[in-house]
Amino acid sequence: MRDQPDILRHTTPPRLKFWGVVALCVAGAIAVGGTALRLYNEHAAATWAQDQDVRTVQLIKLSGVENGALILPGDVQSWTNAPIYSRVSGYLKKWYVDIGTPVKAGQLLAELETPDLDGQVAQGNADLNTAIANQKLSALTAKRWDALLAEGAVSRQDADAKDSDLAAKTAMAASARANLDHLRAMESFKRLVAPFDGIVTTRAVDLGALVLVGTPGATPLFTISDQKKLRIYVRVPQTDAGAVRPGMTATFTVPEMPGRDFSATLGASADAVASASGTQLLQFQADNSPGLIKPGDYAEVHFTIPAGKDAVHVPATALMFRDEGPMVATVDGTNHVRMKVISIQRDLGASVEVGSGLSQNDRVIDNPPDAIRDGDPVRIGATQS
Questions:
Q1: Which of 93, 123, 199, 382 has the fewest C-beta atoms lying within 10 Å of its C-beta?
Q2: Which CATH number is 56-66+310-384's, of 3.40.50.300, 2.40.420.20, 3.30.450.20, 3.30.420.130?
Q3: CATH topology for 226-305?
Q4: Phi and psi (nearest 5°) for 300?
């Protein structure tokens, strides 16, 4: 009876503890693996987010500045230009020259009829004759009274009165003569003549036209220009005025002769900057003996401007304007942004010439975003030359 198994008695399956330990180990490994995977994913996500915050920028290769050309507009004027007005009023009797006519100094341009002036000359001549007659009569009277005074027949006071009357009549005769000389001098202005050798560039009067003196806004009857020598007026910006030197030369072109260069020499400088425009006025001189260039032409004047010692060219796309002034964003050796304030020496349109604040060794960012700040990390992309 003792050897019979008790079917109601519970017995532990063999190796149960072993498999339980194995199950616990597997569960622990799964938990540890899940935690590690989550941490890895979180780290990868953080790294990705950090990578997204780092901008990729393009750098510009800077270059030094050689002597460059400065191109400015110029105003071509004749060396001497004289508008011819009439000094007397009258009617145009005849004109002898038209526009484009070469004239010599003293050549007759036109004649005027001046009936009013002619009448004044006639009256002035009559006044002079009257004054001379009165002077002669007063002289004879004073001579007689001086003789009577010598004989004691008249008083000294009466004789002095006659002498004083002679002096007054003499002064009146001189005044009348001076007035007549003035009228005759004005009469000579009935003939309009050229003041110098040149070309007639305007004519604003015709036969029978009434010419009035002193009319506000009057138009000159003729204009004479000496075009053998020209003046070219150029306004140089204040930033480039330091390159102006006495006797410097420049070349210029005019639209009607494309591709042909003319030479000019600096003749005078205003030596002052106009506050309204911030420019300095220069006057260049050019020979125009062949007569190819016309006064009033628009000229494109080319100067050679020496570059600054440490100047560099920077594309305009790299510029940033903030409260501190014009700036550029550069990248240091650790790939962090360093903002630099610069001074613009010349504006060349697509690029600028930087005089200070930058060197050729600096790595400048092209098209920097507005949000970029000093110290921001960046990733270097392509470098533009």
A1: 382
A2: 2.40.420.20
A3: Elongation Factor Tu (Ef-tu); domain 3 (2.40.30)
A4: -110, 110
In this prediction, residue 17 carries a pLDDT of: 67
Residue at token pair 């205003």: 270
Position 370: which residue type?
Answer: D
pLDDT score at 2: 52
Domain ranges within the chain, ordered by starting residue:
56-66+310-384, 86-193, 226-305
Instruction: Give 91's pLDDT tier (boundaries 50, 70, 90).
Output: very high
More confident residue, 91 or 17: 91
What's the pTM value of the predicted model, to 2 decimals? 0.60
Most confidently predicted of 22-31, 150-159, 266-275 = 266-275
Q: CA 265 to CA 243: how far, in whole Å?
A: 15
Q: What is the pLDDT of residue 51?
A: 52
Residue that is written with structure tokens 């330990």 in the block: 21
Amino acid at 212: L
CA distance 166 to 155: 17
Helix axes 156-187, 115-151, angle to 10 degrees: 160
The length of the chain in residues reads 385
Amino acid symbol at 9: R
Which alpha helices (H) appear in the chain, and where do they start and end? 16-53, 115-151, 156-187
The β-bridge relationship of strands 312-315 and 351-356 is: antiparallel
CA pair distance 236, 281, nearest whole angstrom: 6
Distance separating alpha carbons of residues 324 and 338, to the nearest angstrom: 14
The answer to whether domain 86-193 has CATH 1.10.287.470 is: yes
